[in-house]
């Protein structure tokens, strides 16, 4: 949804979740424990994480290699919450996210944008959906990208619920709705309906319409 909105507004799309997935990918690549904060930080500095515009909105490069698909595998998905909860990793990524946002108009997609990364953002959308519907969407996304699903729909749903719990209870930048965020429940909406709702809210706040 965020990618589509960014394209319609000719804004830069930034998927912050992909950045934490890249950190998790780096940990796996170097054979590090997902809780090894100092080791992961060193490996991030060695490899580097770069975001570039891509056909699907954003490409993620690690050590100069496009890992946009690799960071979406079930193993990375299962461990990203642990890596993203590491204070040092979170601080490093938040600094990078703020630098990216400070250079141009952006649509930033992530779980702590309105509360931690960009608390002064002009428009904040808190998008929610049931764990079941998100599991169905994730399974479809894997199928479209040719990623083998090693879990049942029920297992994916359970993992999503677990990640929501972990992210909302972590000490650093927990997942929560900003006081001034606009909540949109996408459970029973089609993509174009969600996009239209988001664009309408942006237009109200910024006098921008597409």
Helix content: 40-55%
Write the CATH fold name: Rossmann fold
CATH class annotation: Alpha Beta
**What is the tally of helical segments?**
9
Mean pLDDT: 92
H/E series: HEHHEEEHHEHEHHEH
Give me the CATH architecture, please.
3-Layer(aba) Sandwich
Largest β-sheet summary: 3 strands, antiparallel
Care to count the β-strands?
7
The overall number of domains is 1
Question: Could you characterize what this model shows?
Answer:
Keywords: ATP-binding, Cytoplasm, Kinase, Nucleotide-binding, Transferase. Its EC number is 2.7.4.25. Pfam families: Cytidylate_kin. The mean pLDDT is 92. Strands 2-3-4 form a three-stranded antiparallel β-sheet. A two-stranded parallel sheet has the order 1-5. A two-stranded parallel sheet has the order 6-7. Helix content is 53%, strand content 12%. The protein is built from nine helices and seven strands. A hairpin with a 6-residue loop joins strand 2 (49-52) and strand 3. By secondary structure, it is of the alpha/beta class.
Structure described in brief:
The protein is α/β, with parallel strands linked by helices and 210 residues long. 53% of the residues lie in helices and 12% in strands. Keywords: ATP-binding, Cytoplasm, Kinase, Nucleotide-binding, Transferase.
């Amino acid at each position: 949804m965020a990618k589509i909105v960014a394209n319609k507004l000719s804004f830069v799309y930034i998927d912050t979740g992909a950045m934490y997935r890249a950190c998790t990918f780096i940990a796996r690549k170097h054979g590090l424990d997902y809780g090894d904060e100092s080791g992961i930080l060193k490996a991030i500095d060695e490899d580097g994480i770069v975001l570039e515009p891509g056909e699907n909105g954003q490409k993620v490069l690690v050590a100069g290699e496009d890992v946009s698909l690799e960071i979406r595998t079930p193993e990375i998905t299962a461990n990203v919450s642990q890596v993203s909860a590491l204070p040092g990793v979170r601080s490093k990524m938040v600094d990078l996210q703020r630098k990216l946002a400070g250079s141009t108009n952006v649509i930033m997609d992530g779980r702590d944008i309105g509360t931690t990364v960009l608390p002064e953002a002009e428009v904040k959308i808190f998008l929610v959906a049931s764990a079941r519907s998100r599991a169905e969407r994730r399974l479809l996304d894997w199928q479209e990208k040719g990623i083998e699903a090693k879990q049942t729909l029920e297992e994916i749903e359970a993992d999503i619920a677990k990640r929501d719990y972990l992210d909302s209870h972590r000490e650093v930048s927990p997942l929560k709705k900003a006081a001034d965020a606009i909540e949109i429940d996408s459970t029973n909406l089609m993509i174009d309906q969600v996009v239209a709702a988001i664009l309408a809210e942006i237009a109200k706040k910024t006098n921008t319409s597409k």
